[in-house]
Amino acid sequence: MRVANRGKFILIWLIVIIFALSVTGISLAAVLDPKTVEVAYLFDEGKGNVAKDISQNGRDGDISGAKYVKGVFGTCLDYDGNDDNLVVTGYAGIGGTDPRTTVFWFKAGDTREHSWVKWGPNLTGEKYYIRSHLRGAECNLRIEVAGGQNYGADNVCDKEWHHMAVVFPKGSDAVKDHDLYVDGKLQTKEGTDQAMDTNAKDQEVNMGDFLAHHQFMFGLFDEVAIFNVDLSKDQIEAIMDNGLQAALGVDPQGKLATSWGMIKKY
Ligand SMILES: [Ca+2]
Ligand SMILES: [Ca+2]
Q: Ligand 2 center to residue 71 CA distance, Å?
């Protein structure tokens, strides 16, 4: 009788463990290599003006103005739309036609040409500028390089949280080669194509400030990261669903695991 009960007990635990693994939804297809992370901010500090970089590169960000409020995961930055900005001190982004992926969460304060992430001077092909594209009372995710642009169709200025990903695939050479994702959904491509030769020397990465006649970011900004590879749809969804910290396998001290991320189960 006792032996039979014990067998039943073990069987129940096995079912519970298998169920727990299946609901985490973390698959090997979504494995992320920590070495591919150029910079990543969780914005979970809650105070101060230093955004702690959880990548292996120590690229802490200098926050000017933006305040901490509740985010998608932990806290996030609240940009006032007037002059708030973040500078990734000493880091000028990814150059040439090297592959790259930028991901972040955003909740709009209004509909405008929000400046999310940019680097490089305002010269044809050299600029790299992720901002919103105005379409009447709506706005879309847009990447532009001076002389060319590529934007999607889903509204991201409806004052709800949206996860955005801008992917420049390996072997690409022009702005319309980018794949844009909003809430994990691949966007249609509009705009004028332009060959790329991104300048990664002359201007540090800014998150919030604008170029030319565009506008400061206004709204909530969380979980931003730049990768030096083209992430897959599965990897982007894993980041969106599990958060950057879990997706990258970051330990409680805030350091990236030396092993591959996504294997770790939470
Ligand atoms: Ca956060
Ligand atoms: Ca301000």
A: 19
CATH number where 237 lies = 2.60.120.200
HEC string of 70-106? Answer: ECCCCEEEEEECCCCEEEECCCCCCCECCCEEEEEEE
| Ion ligand 2 — residues with CB < 5 Å | 65, 80, 82-84
Q: Tell me how far CA of residue 179 lies from CA of 11, 111, 127, 175, in angstroms.
A: 45, 23, 18, 9
Of all ligands present, the nearest one to the C-alpha of 84 is 2
pLDDT 10s digits, 68-102: 999 999 999 999 999 999 999 999 999 999 999 99
Decide if 21 is inside a domain.
Answer: no
Report pLDDT for 249: 82
Range of the domain at 104: 33-248
How many A from CA of 45 to the centre of ligand 1? 8
In a domain, 259, yes or no: no
pTM: 0.86
Single-letter amino acid code for the residue at 141: L
Count of structural domains within the chain: 1
Is 27 part of any domain?
no
